[in-house]
Amino acid sequence: MLSHKNKYILYLSALNGVLITILILYGNIFFEQGRSIGGIAIAIAIFFLYELFVILFTEKISKAINSRQSVNLFLAFKTGKIILSLLFIAIYAAMVKVELKRFILVFIILYFIYLLFDTVYLVNREKKNKKEYHLKEIEKLRHAK
């Protein structure tokens, strides 16, 4: 059985594979310039690396933080993703200046796809932590008797 971390890394890899395949198959229909397709491919790679960091980091510290700290961490990750995304769009707009509206539309769609993935992962991580906490508490009560 796969661990929680490995399961979500596998899901993340599958999501990236699907998105890259869609980009390869249908990118030329939506974008006229190859640079926009390249920009979206870079965005997918950046989101992949960001989500991979989120998974690895939260798995590393999840047992050492409480629920309130988990919420703060969740909000920090969301804020970081927004800042990273806005920075990427600004750099793309300054450097490429081609099909900007289409690029931003596709980028926002990607952002929300990865936001959904991120949210599902972090909510499931928190549920798993709570379940493990309750099992430990039950075990402590059993040993106390």
Give short descriptive properties of this protein:
about 140 residues; mainly alpha; about 90% helix
Radius of gyration: 19 Å
Distance between the termini: 33 Å
> Helical element count?
4
The tally of beta strands, per DSSP, is: 0
Report the order of strands and helices: HHHH
Structure in words:
This protein has one domain (4-144). The protein is built from four helices and no strands. The chain is mostly helical and 145 residues long.
Question: How would you summarize the topology of this molecule?
Answer:
Blueprint lengths: L3 H27 L3 H28 L5 H29 L4 H45 L1
Helix pairs in contact: 1-2, 1-4, 2-3, 2-4, 3-4
Structure summary:
The protein is mainly α and 145 residues long.
